[in-house]
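Researcher: First entry.
Model:
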Amino acid sequence: MQAKTLAIHAGYEKDAQNTMAVPIYQSTAYEFRDTAHAADLFALKELGNIYTRLMNPTTDVFEKRFAILEGGVAAIGTASGMAAIFYTIANVAEAGDNIIIAKQVYGGTTTLTGHTLKRFGIETRYFDVRNPSEIEALIDDKSKIILFESITNPSIDVADFDAIVSIANKHHILTCVDNTVATPILFSPFEYGVDVTVHSTSKYTTGQGLALGGIIVERENLVDKIKDNPRYKHFNTPDESYHGLVYSDLPLPLFTLRVRLALLRDLGGAPSPFNSWLHIQGLETLPLRMRQHSDSALSIATFLEKHPKVKKVNYPGLHTSAQYPLVKKYFKNEMASGLLSFEVENKEMAQKIADATDIFSVVVNIGDSKSIITHPASTTHQQLSAKELEEAGVPGGLIRLSVGLEDTQDLLDDLAKALG
């Protein structure tokens, strides 16, 4: 089946009430048939609902549907996109290990990996996503994962997936792509050998800025890369906190299972059933929305590219963009999503332009049906030093746009007025 059909039907088997819409199972806990049934569930001898911190029937539909859309074998929902990123790293790395991260990532990912994780004893090493050859020199026997974004936020670069995955596979290291901006509709990371994907489902998935959420998806046969791999001993040795379970011996998707049984169990960043239900509603229209977001963004990027006050436009869907060959190679129908950025003379001018828009709202979010304008250097990336801002592709004059679903001409008129 195609994406538009899967987005509406995948992962849902009607319950006894035969409801067309997925029900909201707003329950903390579930009754067991008897004590033996409860014991079997806790021992993984039988699969089923135990407690909503670990699983929930509404969230289960969302996880299955998203995994199928992404082309993965299993997924696990989290309370936010940042929780998904943290759990992915915590699932493979511990004190004394290092992770390899692209410099051009969301500001929250930069602060998590560059500051918070230091207190856990995990070192972060950075590479330029425009130059994947830098990765090789960063790898040692303590390197556990390579993390990057399919479309970077807010520098709007497209990764060369073949180059990065080739290096990772040579050294038997897991790769993780944050596919939030592209979504499963525009790009399928697993088709290019990526091991794990993460998303902030608070963005395009929900589509209206209604709910926080995140998700982790793993590819099929990931066990082949992890089993007996000395980098991932904790997947290959008994987990004493779970009856001596050896994850790589299970006939189940092991990466997301360990997140569920260890990290959600202990840290508790699970999604609410209601938010999972909102994400399901968003998935139903995601294929239609991503086309409109992409079409409008391309029209706006074309307009900005010709404006005398604009120094540079970052949108890989433009045929004039240095990133366009990568879009043509990897992205479906050459659509490049609704996120773009452009550069004006300085910080003061950028802030003045943002303040002068009427339809675009000054908000630090993306992927909404409403169009958004952001000055990253003073908001999402404010905590970065001048050097870090430059390395992340966030100069003071940079403006980020999340192009919504309003009429394209109205958006063009709004920007023309603000630019003066």
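Researcher: Second entry.
Model:
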Amino acid sequence: MIELFLSAIALGLLFNAAPGAVFAESLRRGLRGGYRPALAVQVGSLVGDFVWAVLGLLGAAALFALPHVGTPLAIAGALLLAWLAWRTLLDGLGPMPIIEPAVAPQTGADGARAALAVGAAISLGNPMNVTYWAGLGGVITSLGAQQPGWTAFAVFLTGFMLSSVAWCFICAGAIATTRRRIGPRAWRALNLVCAAGLAYFAALVAARQMGWAG
């Protein structure tokens, strides 16, 4: 379970650190308002992620109760990780998207609530997230839980969400500190590091399913 927990923390950091729609919105609002609105977007997206995570992992846990399902789910999880690594690599090799500044700055509680709502809407508005989480549940058998039950899924979700919460503060702090100095090089480097990490986990899951790794 310790390996599963630590792997979940690492995966959580990799998934959250890969720049995407939430990061872009955090950066857009952070350029004008600094730390607080950037953090609010991150926390809002975390609420949506948690909802989809619970739904997806509950479905995966139910499937694991069926015979001869663990291996296909693990393979599907490895393919999912590989696909995410590929998409992240393409993002890193492509141009950094143009981040338009907020039309009107919002400060105080109203601005924080608006940013929170936007972050949640970005995450909750993508129903494919439940499929993503169900696929991610398939990697659990290869990351330290030979016969995963509800406890294993709870451990995985706890580790993943803990690192996600930590990333909210790390990301908002980095945006507030660097503000307009975030450029194409940093964008590319972050994507490439995340792509390499995701590819590593994809290879690890596949190798363990084939008996190539302990």
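Model: Note on the second entry: The longest helix spans residues 35-64.
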